[in-house]
Amino acid sequence: xxxxxxxxxxxxxxxxxxxxxxxxxxxxxxxxxxxxxxxxxxxxxxxxxxxxxxxxxxxxxxxxxxxxxxxxxxxxxxxxxxxxxxxxxxxxxxxxxxxxxxxxxxxxxxxxxxxxxxxxxxxxxxxxxxxxxxxxxxxxxxxxxxxxxxxxxxxxxxxxxxxxxxxxxxxxxxxxxxxxxxxxxxxxxxxxxxxxxxxxxxxxxxxxxxxxxxxxxxxxxxxxxxxxxxxxxxxxxxxxxxxxxxxxxxxxxxxxxxxxxxxxxxxxxxxxxxxxxxxxxxxxxxxxxxxxxxxxxxxxxxxxxxxxxxxxxxxxxxxxxxxxxxxxxxxxxx
Length: 334
Ligand code: KG4
Ligand code: ZN
Prior knowledge:
By secondary structure, this protein is of the alpha/beta class.
C-alpha cells in the first residue's frame, strides 16, 4: 500500500487527500462549509449533505491533480465511515465506493477519531505505549494505545464535549459558530477572574464533565444581565478557558503517569487551542520530561482527509478492508 486516496465528509468539511506510505502528504484539499452554517449557529445536517455532494468530485480531482498522481498509481481508497452525520458520511462513502469499484481498488474503512490521532504521525513516528487526548466538537476522550490500530478508551466526557462547550458558551457571548478559536484569542487578552468550577478534576478516574461549567457560565451571564452589571468579555473567555484547560491537563498528565506511556498525542479540533497546547506542554516538561508530546500543526487539528489516509494506511496493513456494502456508522466508537 504505497499511495492512498483518502476521503473525509463526516461533518462540515469535504476533504480529499493523497498520502504516500502513510506519512507523507502529497495533497490535502479541504473545502469548508462553515460560512453556510454560521447563520444557523451550528451545522445543519441537510445543508452539510448538500454541500458535500457539490464539492466531493471537484475535491477528488483537485487532490489527484495537486499530488501529481495518476489514478493508475493509487493502491487503495480510504474513507471515514463514522462517527459523524449519517447523510454527510454517506456522500464520502458513496464517492469512495464508486471510485474504488471503477478503478478496481481496495476500500479501507476508517474511524474519524482514529484519523484525528493519526494526524500526529505526520509530525513524528508514534512511540508505544502512548496516550491520546482527543478533543473535538463531538468527543472528549483519553485513548490508550499499546500498538498501531489498537485503541482503549480509558476516560471520556459524561456530557458535553470540550468543543461543544466552547461553541455553546460562544453563543451566549454572541460570537459566531464555531467559537473555539475566537474564545481562545480573547482568553489570551484576559485573566481568570471569575473562577469557574473544575468539574471532576480531583476524582480518581479519567472521565470529564463540561455541562456544569457551561451552566455556571450561562448563570453568571444571565444574573449579571438581570442586575444590569457589566462583565468583562476577555476575562469571561479567560476564566472559561482556564477551567477547561486545567481539567484537561490535570487528567491527561495523570493518565500518562498511571499508564507509563512514552508519548502523548493531543488531537482533534480543540487541540488547536493555544492555551491547551502551551499548558500541557509545560506541565509535561516539568512532570514527565521523558514523555514525548506531539501536537499536529493547526491545519491538521481540524477535520481533513490527510489524517484519514494516515489511519487508513495502518488499517490496510492490518488487512482491514471492506466490501462495497460498507455503510455509514454515525455512532461508531474507537
Ligand atoms: O475536530 P473538529 O474540527 O470537528 C469535529 O470532529 O468535531 O472540531 C471542531 C471543534 C469546534 O467545537 C471548535 O469550536 C473547536 O473544535 N475549536 C477550538 C479551537 N479551534 C477549533 N476550540 C478551542 N480552541 C480553539 N483554538
Ligand atoms: Zn473531527
